[in-house]
Amino acid sequence: MPSNNNxxxxxxxxxxxxxxxxxxxxxxxxxxxxxxxxxxxxxENLRRVIEACVEFGVQILTIYAxxxxxxxxxxxxxxGLMSILEDVIDRELKELHKxxxxxxxxxxxxxxxxxxxxKVREAIAMTARNTRLTLxxxxxxxxxxxxxxxxxxxxxxxxxxxxxxxALIGQYLYTGGQPDPDLIIRTSGELRVSNFLIWQGAxxxxxxxxxxxxDFDKExxxxxxxxxxxxxxxxxxxxxxx
Length: 242
Ligand code: FPP
Hints:
CATH class: Alpha Beta
Mean pLDDT: 95
Oligomer: single chain
Number of strands: 6
Structural class: alpha/beta
Strand order of the largest sheet: 3-4-2-1-5-6
Bound molecules: farnesyl diphosphate
Number of helices: 7
Order of helices and strands: EHHEHEHEHHEEH
CATH superfamily: Decaprenyl diphosphate synthase-like
Shape: globular
Low-confidence stretches: none
Largest sheet: 6 strands, parallel
Radius of gyration: 18 Å
Helix content: 40-55%
Distance between the termini: 18 Å
CATH architecture: 3-Layer(aba) Sandwich
């Protein structure tokens, strides 16, 4: 395997990368700025990381933008994060569409304000045929809640108990039809899963960096891909499946 001390890429690129974009608040505090300034800087960075994912050949990128627990943050921060999502759709959608990005939402859309819901649905419809990169935006998302919702729908569909298996549950999750994440990145050094893709991440490789999200750049993403390429994924076996 070639070394990673230049701008090369490993041969194996994970098809599905998921990111817990953590550290916006600390990034802002270090600069004496309000927390929302950190979220805005994080949003700028998101644009760069999406571009890098397209360039590196990642097929699916899932980002954790707002968790079901984040409603407990101060009201101005919650409203600020809602406005950021709206701004991203208003300002970035055309460019994302032009670059072949398919937008998807994972989480409880019905609990956010109706105007924003409509914008999200329109963005999803507009980009539905794009194939270059699928961007799953986890917004008002919680992994446990996702499983609860899936179980409810399985029961509502009258599925017989002996038909319930792992594949069926996977189909009922928000990510139904997509491969599980291969690599989950968490920025800002926290060693927690924080209710993110808890079913889908069962065999994901984790990569944690101390870098705060607004500073996690293309080169750090490249480093994460190299770390991933060096891991031997055994899926519970004694060696990697052939
Ligand atoms: C965690 O950092 C980050 C969030 C809760 C929000 C992430 C949102 C963005 C990066 C903006 C992009 C958003 C959309 C909607 C596309 P933190 O605030 O918990 O950081 P801290 O742990 O340092 O306080």
